Structure prediction request, 490 residues.
Amino acid sequence: MTHTTETTLETLHATATEIFTGALQACDIASAFDRRLRFEGEMLHRLIPDGSGPESFDLSSYKRIFVIALGKAALPMLDILLDRMKRRKGLRGICCAGQLPRKRNWRFRYFEGGHPLPNEDSFGAARAALAMLRKAKADTLVFFLISGGGSAMFDLPLDPQITLEETIAFHEALVGSGAPINEINTLRKHFSAVKAGRLAMAAPEAAKISLLLPDVPLRTLDALSSGPTSPDHSTVADARELIAKYNLAPKFPPSVRAFFERDDMPESPGTKGWRPPFLPRLQKTEITAPRRMTASASMSGEDEAFRDSVFEILLSSHDLVENARALAQKAGYFAAVDNSCDDWDYADAARYLLDRFHGLRSKHARLCLISVGEVTVTLNRNPGAGGRNQQFALACALELQKYPDDHLVVLSAGSDGIDGNTQCAGAIADPTTVARARAFGFNPEESLASFNACPLFTAIGDAVVTGPTGHNLRDLRLLIAESNDIPVRK
Prediction:
Protein backbone atom coordinates (compact mmCIF):
# COMPACT_ATOMS: atom_id res chain seq x y z
CA MET A 1 0.00 0.00 0.00
CA THR A 2 1.34 3.38 -0.99
CA HIS A 3 1.36 6.43 1.27
CA THR A 4 -1.10 8.11 -1.10
CA THR A 5 -3.52 5.20 -0.77
CA GLU A 6 -3.23 5.26 3.02
CA THR A 7 -3.94 8.99 3.14
CA THR A 8 -6.88 8.70 0.76
CA LEU A 9 -8.42 5.85 2.77
CA GLU A 10 -8.11 7.85 5.98
CA THR A 11 -9.93 10.72 4.28
CA LEU A 12 -12.64 8.39 3.02
CA HIS A 13 -13.07 6.87 6.51
CA ALA A 14 -13.62 10.36 7.90
CA THR A 15 -15.99 11.32 5.08
CA ALA A 16 -18.11 8.19 5.46
CA THR A 17 -18.36 8.76 9.21
CA GLU A 18 -19.33 12.40 8.68
CA ILE A 19 -22.05 11.47 6.20
CA PHE A 20 -23.47 8.83 8.54
CA THR A 21 -23.46 11.00 11.67
CA GLY A 22 -24.59 14.07 9.73
CA ALA A 23 -27.54 12.20 8.21
CA LEU A 24 -28.57 11.07 11.68
CA GLN A 25 -28.31 14.54 13.15
CA ALA A 26 -30.44 15.93 10.33
CA CYS A 27 -33.20 13.46 11.27
CA ASP A 28 -34.32 15.62 14.17
CA ILE A 29 -37.37 14.19 15.93
CA ALA A 30 -38.48 17.54 17.31
CA SER A 31 -38.42 19.20 13.89
CA ALA A 32 -40.27 16.26 12.36
CA PHE A 33 -42.90 16.46 15.09
CA ASP A 34 -43.42 20.15 14.43
CA ARG A 35 -43.85 19.50 10.70
CA ARG A 36 -46.73 17.13 11.42
CA LEU A 37 -48.48 18.41 14.56
CA ARG A 38 -49.06 21.69 16.38
CA PHE A 39 -50.61 22.37 19.78
CA GLU A 40 -52.45 25.65 20.27
CA GLY A 41 -53.89 25.85 23.75
CA GLU A 42 -56.35 22.96 24.04
CA MET A 43 -56.30 22.30 20.30
CA LEU A 44 -54.13 19.78 18.46
CA HIS A 45 -53.83 20.37 14.72
CA ARG A 46 -52.55 17.98 12.06
CA LEU A 47 -50.48 20.10 9.69
CA ILE A 48 -50.52 17.64 6.79
CA PRO A 49 -54.15 16.47 6.65
CA ASP A 50 -54.77 13.60 4.23
CA GLY A 51 -58.42 12.85 4.75
CA SER A 52 -57.62 9.85 6.95
CA GLY A 53 -58.94 11.40 10.15
CA PRO A 54 -59.79 14.60 11.99
CA GLU A 55 -57.63 17.59 11.13
CA SER A 56 -57.93 18.89 14.70
CA PHE A 57 -58.58 17.51 18.17
CA ASP A 58 -60.11 19.53 20.99
CA LEU A 59 -58.26 18.23 24.06
CA SER A 60 -60.77 19.91 26.35
CA SER A 61 -63.36 17.38 25.20
CA TYR A 62 -61.36 14.55 26.77
CA LYS A 63 -61.45 13.92 30.51
CA ARG A 64 -58.24 11.90 30.46
CA ILE A 65 -55.18 11.66 28.23
CA PHE A 66 -53.08 8.50 28.32
CA VAL A 67 -49.64 8.18 26.72
CA ILE A 68 -47.91 4.87 25.91
CA ALA A 69 -44.32 5.36 24.71
CA LEU A 70 -42.30 2.32 23.68
CA GLY A 71 -39.13 1.54 21.73
CA LYS A 72 -35.63 2.89 21.37
CA ALA A 73 -36.81 6.46 20.78
CA ALA A 74 -39.47 6.40 23.51
CA LEU A 75 -37.72 8.92 25.76
CA PRO A 76 -37.09 11.71 23.20
CA MET A 77 -40.53 11.20 21.66
CA LEU A 78 -42.16 11.51 25.08
CA ASP A 79 -40.10 14.54 26.02
CA ILE A 80 -41.10 16.33 22.81
CA LEU A 81 -44.79 15.51 23.24
CA LEU A 82 -44.81 16.75 26.85
CA ASP A 83 -42.93 19.90 25.84
CA ARG A 84 -45.42 20.73 23.10
CA MET A 85 -48.58 19.64 24.93
CA LYS A 86 -49.19 21.84 27.98
CA ARG A 87 -52.28 19.92 29.11
CA ARG A 88 -51.63 18.00 32.35
CA LYS A 89 -55.11 17.44 33.74
CA GLY A 90 -55.95 13.73 33.62
CA LEU A 91 -52.57 12.93 32.08
CA ARG A 92 -51.03 9.53 32.86
CA GLY A 93 -48.69 7.26 30.98
CA ILE A 94 -46.28 4.38 30.56
CA CYS A 95 -42.80 4.72 29.05
CA CYS A 96 -40.78 1.65 28.09
CA ALA A 97 -37.33 2.50 26.70
CA GLY A 98 -33.85 1.02 26.57
CA GLN A 99 -32.76 3.04 29.59
CA LEU A 100 -34.34 5.00 32.42
CA PRO A 101 -34.31 8.81 32.21
CA ARG A 102 -32.44 10.99 34.66
CA LYS A 103 -35.52 13.13 35.22
CA ARG A 104 -38.91 11.50 35.51
CA ASN A 105 -42.40 12.90 35.26
CA TRP A 106 -44.44 11.70 38.24
CA ARG A 107 -47.44 11.11 36.01
CA PHE A 108 -45.58 8.31 34.22
CA ARG A 109 -44.30 4.88 35.12
CA TYR A 110 -40.94 4.13 33.51
CA PHE A 111 -39.60 0.73 32.51
CA GLU A 112 -36.20 -0.32 31.14
CA GLY A 113 -37.14 -2.91 28.54
CA GLY A 114 -34.66 -5.45 27.23
CA HIS A 115 -33.23 -5.55 23.71
CA PRO A 116 -32.65 -7.63 21.63
CA LEU A 117 -34.25 -9.94 24.20
CA PRO A 118 -37.11 -9.09 26.58
CA ASN A 119 -36.62 -8.80 30.35
CA GLU A 120 -38.77 -8.40 33.47
CA ASP A 121 -39.46 -4.76 32.64
CA SER A 122 -40.63 -5.76 29.15
CA PHE A 123 -43.35 -7.83 30.80
CA GLY A 124 -43.97 -5.22 33.49
CA ALA A 125 -44.46 -2.40 30.99
CA ALA A 126 -46.88 -4.47 28.89
CA ARG A 127 -48.94 -5.45 31.93
CA ALA A 128 -49.03 -1.84 33.18
CA ALA A 129 -50.08 -0.51 29.77
CA LEU A 130 -52.88 -3.04 29.39
CA ALA A 131 -54.14 -2.30 32.89
CA MET A 132 -54.15 1.45 32.23
CA LEU A 133 -55.80 1.18 28.80
CA ARG A 134 -58.63 -0.93 30.18
CA LYS A 135 -59.66 2.14 32.19
CA ALA A 136 -59.99 4.21 29.02
CA LYS A 137 -63.51 5.23 28.01
CA ALA A 138 -65.01 7.34 25.24
CA ASP A 139 -63.78 10.44 27.08
CA THR A 140 -60.14 9.30 26.80
CA LEU A 141 -57.52 10.24 24.21
CA VAL A 142 -54.54 7.89 23.93
CA PHE A 143 -51.20 8.81 22.37
CA PHE A 144 -49.09 5.84 21.29
CA LEU A 145 -45.45 6.82 20.66
CA ILE A 146 -43.96 3.85 18.81
CA SER A 147 -40.39 3.38 17.61
CA GLY A 148 -38.23 0.41 16.67
CA GLY A 149 -37.07 -2.11 19.24
CA GLY A 150 -40.45 -2.41 20.91
CA SER A 151 -40.91 -6.02 19.81
CA ALA A 152 -38.46 -7.11 22.51
CA MET A 153 -38.64 -4.16 24.91
CA PHE A 154 -42.41 -4.40 25.27
CA ASP A 155 -43.86 -7.90 25.25
CA LEU A 156 -46.15 -10.30 27.07
CA PRO A 157 -47.15 -13.80 25.91
CA LEU A 158 -50.74 -14.32 24.87
CA ASP A 159 -50.60 -17.54 26.88
CA PRO A 160 -50.09 -16.46 30.52
CA GLN A 161 -48.50 -19.79 31.36
CA ILE A 162 -45.45 -19.04 29.19
CA THR A 163 -42.62 -17.67 31.35
CA LEU A 164 -40.12 -14.90 30.73
CA GLU A 165 -37.33 -17.45 30.28
CA GLU A 166 -39.37 -19.28 27.66
CA THR A 167 -40.21 -15.98 25.95
CA ILE A 168 -36.51 -15.09 25.81
CA ALA A 169 -35.76 -18.46 24.20
CA PHE A 170 -38.54 -17.80 21.66
CA HIS A 171 -37.01 -14.42 20.75
CA GLU A 172 -33.52 -15.95 20.55
CA ALA A 173 -34.72 -18.55 18.06
CA LEU A 174 -36.34 -15.86 15.89
CA VAL A 175 -33.36 -13.46 15.95
CA GLY A 176 -30.96 -16.22 14.92
CA SER A 177 -33.21 -17.79 12.28
CA GLY A 178 -32.04 -15.69 9.34
CA ALA A 179 -35.63 -14.70 8.58
CA PRO A 180 -36.36 -11.10 7.48
CA ILE A 181 -37.88 -8.82 10.09
CA ASN A 182 -41.41 -8.88 8.65
CA GLU A 183 -41.49 -12.69 8.97
CA ILE A 184 -40.00 -12.60 12.47
CA ASN A 185 -42.64 -10.09 13.49
CA THR A 186 -45.42 -12.21 12.02
CA LEU A 187 -44.55 -14.84 14.60
CA ARG A 188 -44.18 -12.27 17.37
CA LYS A 189 -47.62 -10.88 16.59
CA HIS A 190 -49.32 -14.23 16.97
CA PHE A 191 -47.42 -14.93 20.20
CA SER A 192 -48.02 -11.64 22.01
CA ALA A 193 -50.84 -10.08 24.02
CA VAL A 194 -49.75 -6.53 23.09
CA LYS A 195 -48.85 -6.80 19.41
CA ALA A 196 -50.89 -6.99 16.19
CA GLY A 197 -53.31 -4.31 17.37
CA ARG A 198 -54.06 -5.93 20.73
CA LEU A 199 -52.70 -2.92 22.62
CA ALA A 200 -55.23 -0.68 20.86
CA MET A 201 -57.95 -3.26 21.45
CA ALA A 202 -57.49 -2.81 25.19
CA ALA A 203 -59.09 0.65 24.83
CA PRO A 204 -61.77 0.14 22.15
CA GLU A 205 -63.82 3.23 23.04
CA ALA A 206 -60.94 5.71 23.23
CA ALA A 207 -59.69 8.02 20.49
CA LYS A 208 -56.17 7.01 19.52
CA ILE A 209 -53.22 8.78 17.89
CA SER A 210 -50.17 6.70 16.97
CA LEU A 211 -46.98 8.67 16.30
CA LEU A 212 -44.55 6.40 14.47
CA LEU A 213 -40.79 6.37 14.05
CA PRO A 214 -40.46 3.26 11.86
CA ASP A 215 -37.44 1.00 11.53
CA VAL A 216 -39.24 -1.11 8.94
CA PRO A 217 -40.09 -0.56 5.27
CA LEU A 218 -43.00 1.86 4.87
CA ARG A 219 -44.90 -0.79 2.93
CA THR A 220 -44.96 -2.97 6.09
CA LEU A 221 -45.60 -0.41 8.82
CA ASP A 222 -47.56 -2.93 10.86
CA ALA A 223 -44.20 -4.64 11.50
CA LEU A 224 -43.00 -1.63 13.55
CA SER A 225 -42.59 -3.04 17.08
CA SER A 226 -44.83 -5.82 15.73
CA GLY A 227 -47.76 -3.45 15.29
CA PRO A 228 -49.17 -2.91 18.80
CA THR A 229 -51.83 -0.51 17.47
CA SER A 230 -52.12 -1.80 13.88
CA PRO A 231 -54.40 -4.65 12.76
CA ASP A 232 -52.62 -7.66 11.35
CA HIS A 233 -53.24 -9.27 7.97
CA SER A 234 -51.21 -12.43 8.60
CA THR A 235 -52.88 -15.61 9.77
CA VAL A 236 -52.18 -18.52 12.08
CA ALA A 237 -51.54 -20.56 8.93
CA ASP A 238 -48.88 -18.03 7.87
CA ALA A 239 -47.18 -18.30 11.25
CA ARG A 240 -47.10 -22.08 11.08
CA GLU A 241 -45.70 -21.99 7.55
CA LEU A 242 -42.84 -19.78 8.78
CA ILE A 243 -42.12 -22.13 11.66
CA ALA A 244 -41.80 -24.97 9.17
CA LYS A 245 -39.82 -22.88 6.66
CA TYR A 246 -37.08 -22.05 9.19
CA ASN A 247 -37.37 -25.31 11.17
CA LEU A 248 -38.09 -23.33 14.33
CA ALA A 249 -40.23 -25.80 16.26
CA PRO A 250 -37.26 -27.80 17.66
CA LYS A 251 -35.66 -24.52 18.77
CA PHE A 252 -38.74 -23.33 20.67
CA PRO A 253 -39.33 -24.23 24.34
CA PRO A 254 -42.00 -26.94 24.70
CA SER A 255 -44.59 -24.44 25.98
CA VAL A 256 -44.10 -22.15 22.97
CA ARG A 257 -44.16 -25.06 20.55
CA ALA A 258 -47.39 -26.29 22.14
CA PHE A 259 -48.90 -22.80 21.89
CA PHE A 260 -48.36 -22.63 18.12
CA GLU A 261 -49.70 -26.18 17.70
CA ARG A 262 -53.00 -25.61 19.52
CA ASP A 263 -56.13 -26.28 17.49
CA ASP A 264 -57.84 -23.31 19.16
CA MET A 265 -54.96 -20.84 18.68
CA PRO A 266 -56.63 -17.46 18.02
CA GLU A 267 -56.14 -15.38 14.94
CA SER A 268 -54.51 -12.00 15.45
CA PRO A 269 -56.79 -8.96 14.92
CA GLY A 270 -57.03 -8.03 11.25
CA THR A 271 -58.88 -8.42 7.98
CA LYS A 272 -59.54 -12.14 8.03
CA GLY A 273 -61.75 -14.70 9.67
CA TRP A 274 -62.02 -14.50 13.44
CA ARG A 275 -62.19 -17.30 16.02
CA PRO A 276 -62.77 -16.72 19.74
CA PRO A 277 -59.54 -16.58 21.74
CA PHE A 278 -58.96 -19.42 24.16
CA LEU A 279 -57.44 -17.10 26.77
CA PRO A 280 -59.52 -14.96 29.14
CA ARG A 281 -57.17 -11.99 28.69
CA LEU A 282 -58.75 -11.03 25.34
CA GLN A 283 -62.38 -10.23 24.60
CA LYS A 284 -64.07 -11.45 21.45
CA THR A 285 -64.45 -8.56 19.00
CA GLU A 286 -65.39 -8.39 15.34
CA ILE A 287 -61.95 -7.25 14.14
CA THR A 288 -61.42 -5.76 10.73
CA ALA A 289 -59.08 -2.78 10.29
CA PRO A 290 -58.79 0.92 11.09
CA ARG A 291 -60.94 3.42 9.27
CA ARG A 292 -58.23 6.10 9.50
CA MET A 293 -54.80 4.90 8.58
CA THR A 294 -52.29 7.16 6.88
CA ALA A 295 -49.77 4.38 6.50
CA SER A 296 -51.66 2.00 4.27
CA ALA A 297 -54.46 2.83 1.90
CA SER A 298 -55.36 -0.87 1.74
CA MET A 299 -56.58 -0.87 5.34
CA SER A 300 -60.23 -0.02 5.84
CA GLY A 301 -63.15 -0.98 8.02
CA GLU A 302 -65.32 0.21 10.87
CA ASP A 303 -64.24 -1.80 13.89
CA GLU A 304 -64.73 -0.13 17.25
CA ALA A 305 -61.21 -0.92 18.45
CA PHE A 306 -59.65 1.06 15.58
CA ARG A 307 -62.45 3.43 14.59
CA ASP A 308 -60.92 6.54 16.14
CA SER A 309 -57.32 5.77 15.27
CA VAL A 310 -55.02 8.21 13.50
CA PHE A 311 -51.46 7.34 12.45
CA GLU A 312 -48.68 9.87 11.81
CA ILE A 313 -45.21 8.94 10.50
CA LEU A 314 -42.72 11.40 11.98
CA LEU A 315 -39.54 10.15 10.32
CA SER A 316 -38.46 7.11 8.32
CA SER A 317 -35.47 5.58 6.58
CA HIS A 318 -36.40 7.71 3.56
CA ASP A 319 -35.36 10.80 5.55
CA LEU A 320 -32.09 9.12 6.51
CA VAL A 321 -31.30 8.30 2.86
CA GLU A 322 -32.18 11.75 1.57
CA ASN A 323 -30.03 13.43 4.22
CA ALA A 324 -27.11 11.13 3.37
CA ARG A 325 -27.59 11.86 -0.33
CA ALA A 326 -27.53 15.62 0.27
CA LEU A 327 -24.37 15.40 2.38
CA ALA A 328 -22.59 13.22 -0.19
CA GLN A 329 -23.48 15.61 -2.99
CA LYS A 330 -22.35 18.57 -0.93
CA ALA A 331 -19.02 16.82 -0.46
CA GLY A 332 -18.66 16.55 -4.25
CA TYR A 333 -19.67 12.92 -4.82
CA PHE A 334 -22.05 11.48 -7.35
CA ALA A 335 -24.67 9.99 -5.00
CA ALA A 336 -26.68 6.93 -6.03
CA VAL A 337 -29.26 5.04 -3.95
CA ASP A 338 -29.94 1.32 -4.15
CA ASN A 339 -32.17 -0.26 -1.47
CA SER A 340 -32.97 -3.43 -3.38
CA CYS A 341 -31.02 -5.74 -1.05
CA ASP A 342 -33.23 -5.02 1.96
CA ASP A 343 -33.76 -8.20 4.02
CA TRP A 344 -31.18 -10.12 1.98
CA ASP A 345 -28.60 -12.38 3.55
CA TYR A 346 -25.58 -10.25 4.50
CA ALA A 347 -23.19 -12.10 2.17
CA ASP A 348 -25.53 -11.81 -0.82
CA ALA A 349 -26.05 -8.12 -0.04
CA ALA A 350 -22.29 -7.52 0.16
CA ARG A 351 -21.66 -9.11 -3.22
CA TYR A 352 -24.57 -7.30 -4.83
CA LEU A 353 -23.70 -3.82 -3.56
CA LEU A 354 -20.02 -4.18 -4.44
CA ASP A 355 -20.94 -5.29 -7.97
CA ARG A 356 -23.41 -2.44 -8.25
CA PHE A 357 -20.82 0.01 -6.98
CA HIS A 358 -18.18 -1.10 -9.45
CA GLY A 359 -20.68 -0.83 -12.29
CA LEU A 360 -21.47 2.77 -11.38
CA ARG A 361 -17.84 3.58 -10.76
CA SER A 362 -16.94 3.04 -14.37
CA LYS A 363 -18.85 6.26 -15.03
CA HIS A 364 -18.36 8.10 -11.74
CA ALA A 365 -14.93 7.78 -10.15
CA ARG A 366 -15.92 10.03 -7.26
CA LEU A 367 -18.90 8.01 -6.11
CA CYS A 368 -21.05 7.40 -3.04
CA LEU A 369 -23.52 4.51 -3.19
CA ILE A 370 -26.16 4.70 -0.43
CA SER A 371 -28.26 1.76 0.73
CA VAL A 372 -30.74 1.61 3.59
CA GLY A 373 -32.47 -1.35 5.20
CA GLU A 374 -31.47 -4.43 7.12
CA VAL A 375 -29.56 -7.52 6.07
CA THR A 376 -30.11 -10.85 7.75
CA VAL A 377 -27.80 -13.29 9.50
CA THR A 378 -28.36 -16.89 10.53
CA LEU A 379 -26.66 -17.41 13.88
CA ASN A 380 -25.14 -20.57 15.24
CA ARG A 381 -25.70 -21.70 18.82
CA ASN A 382 -22.77 -19.76 20.24
CA PRO A 383 -22.26 -16.58 18.23
CA GLY A 384 -19.52 -14.18 19.20
CA ALA A 385 -19.70 -10.41 19.60
CA GLY A 386 -21.08 -8.75 16.51
CA GLY A 387 -24.11 -7.70 14.53
CA ARG A 388 -25.42 -7.64 10.99
CA ASN A 389 -23.61 -4.39 10.11
CA GLN A 390 -20.19 -5.61 11.25
CA GLN A 391 -20.86 -8.95 9.58
CA PHE A 392 -21.66 -7.16 6.31
CA ALA A 393 -18.57 -4.93 6.60
CA LEU A 394 -16.27 -7.90 7.21
CA ALA A 395 -17.73 -9.76 4.22
CA CYS A 396 -16.96 -6.68 2.11
CA ALA A 397 -13.44 -6.49 3.54
CA LEU A 398 -12.66 -10.04 2.44
CA GLU A 399 -13.62 -9.09 -1.10
CA LEU A 400 -11.83 -5.72 -1.05
CA GLN A 401 -8.49 -7.28 -0.01
CA LYS A 402 -8.07 -8.41 -3.62
CA TYR A 403 -7.35 -4.78 -4.57
CA PRO A 404 -5.05 -3.41 -1.84
CA ASP A 405 -4.33 -0.12 -3.64
CA ASP A 406 -7.98 0.71 -4.35
CA HIS A 407 -9.38 3.93 -2.88
CA LEU A 408 -12.67 2.57 -1.61
CA VAL A 409 -14.34 2.21 1.79
CA VAL A 410 -17.57 0.62 3.02
CA LEU A 411 -19.44 1.82 6.11
CA SER A 412 -22.38 -0.10 7.53
CA ALA A 413 -24.03 1.06 10.75
CA GLY A 414 -27.32 1.03 12.62
CA SER A 415 -29.08 4.34 13.10
CA ASP A 416 -29.86 3.36 16.70
CA GLY A 417 -26.15 3.17 17.54
CA ILE A 418 -26.33 -0.52 18.47
CA ASP A 419 -25.34 -3.45 16.29
CA GLY A 420 -26.38 -6.86 17.52
CA ASN A 421 -25.06 -7.74 20.97
CA THR A 422 -22.37 -5.03 20.94
CA GLN A 423 -22.04 -1.36 21.89
CA CYS A 424 -20.93 -0.49 18.36
CA ALA A 425 -23.20 0.91 15.67
CA GLY A 426 -21.31 -0.91 12.93
CA ALA A 427 -17.94 -0.82 11.17
CA ILE A 428 -15.90 0.53 8.26
CA ALA A 429 -14.03 -1.72 5.85
CA ASP A 430 -11.45 -0.97 3.16
CA PRO A 431 -8.92 -2.93 1.06
CA THR A 432 -6.44 -2.96 3.96
CA THR A 433 -8.84 -4.24 6.64
CA VAL A 434 -7.95 -7.92 6.32
CA ALA A 435 -4.17 -7.35 6.29
CA ARG A 436 -4.35 -5.05 9.31
CA ALA A 437 -6.54 -7.56 11.17
CA ARG A 438 -4.07 -10.37 10.49
CA ALA A 439 -1.26 -8.15 11.82
CA PHE A 440 -3.22 -7.96 15.09
CA GLY A 441 -3.49 -11.75 15.22
CA PHE A 442 -7.04 -12.12 13.91
CA ASN A 443 -8.28 -14.66 11.39
CA PRO A 444 -10.94 -12.67 9.46
CA GLU A 445 -12.48 -15.77 7.87
CA GLU A 446 -12.86 -17.33 11.29
CA SER A 447 -14.30 -14.13 12.75
CA LEU A 448 -16.88 -14.07 9.97
CA ALA A 449 -17.84 -17.72 10.41
CA SER A 450 -18.28 -17.33 14.18
CA PHE A 451 -20.15 -14.00 13.94
CA ASN A 452 -17.40 -12.43 16.01
CA ALA A 453 -16.50 -9.34 13.96
CA CYS A 454 -16.64 -6.76 16.75
CA PRO A 455 -13.30 -7.63 18.43
CA LEU A 456 -11.57 -7.45 15.03
CA PHE A 457 -12.95 -4.04 14.05
CA THR A 458 -12.41 -2.66 17.55
CA ALA A 459 -8.77 -3.75 17.58
CA ILE A 460 -7.93 -2.08 14.26
CA GLY A 461 -9.86 1.07 15.15
CA ASP A 462 -12.57 0.73 12.52
CA ALA A 463 -15.62 0.12 14.70
CA VAL A 464 -18.28 2.83 14.40
CA VAL A 465 -19.23 3.93 17.91
CA THR A 466 -21.93 6.54 18.47
CA GLY A 467 -23.64 5.42 21.66
CA PRO A 468 -27.46 5.22 21.74
CA THR A 469 -28.76 7.81 19.27
CA GLY A 470 -32.41 8.00 20.25
CA HIS A 471 -33.21 6.96 16.68
CA ASN A 472 -34.04 3.71 14.99
CA LEU A 473 -34.49 4.43 11.28
CA ARG A 474 -32.92 1.18 10.03
CA ASP A 475 -29.31 0.59 8.92
CA LEU A 476 -27.33 2.80 6.55
CA ARG A 477 -24.66 1.47 4.21
CA LEU A 478 -22.24 3.76 2.37
CA LEU A 479 -19.78 2.70 -0.33
CA ILE A 480 -17.43 5.55 -1.23
CA ALA A 481 -14.57 5.87 -3.71
CA GLU A 482 -12.37 8.79 -4.65
CA SER A 483 -9.97 8.02 -7.44
CA ASN A 484 -9.56 8.40 -11.18
CA ASP A 485 -7.34 5.33 -11.19
CA ILE A 486 -9.99 2.62 -11.20
CA PRO A 487 -8.48 -0.89 -10.95
CA VAL A 488 -9.48 -3.51 -13.49
CA ARG A 489 -11.60 -6.21 -11.80
CA LYS A 490 -11.69 -9.77 -12.93
Summary: The CA atoms of residues 317 and 473 lie 5 Å apart. The domain at 29-313 is CATH 3.40.50.10180 (Rossmann fold). DSSP finds 16 helices and 15 strands in the chain. Confidence is low (pLDDT under 50) at residues 273-302.
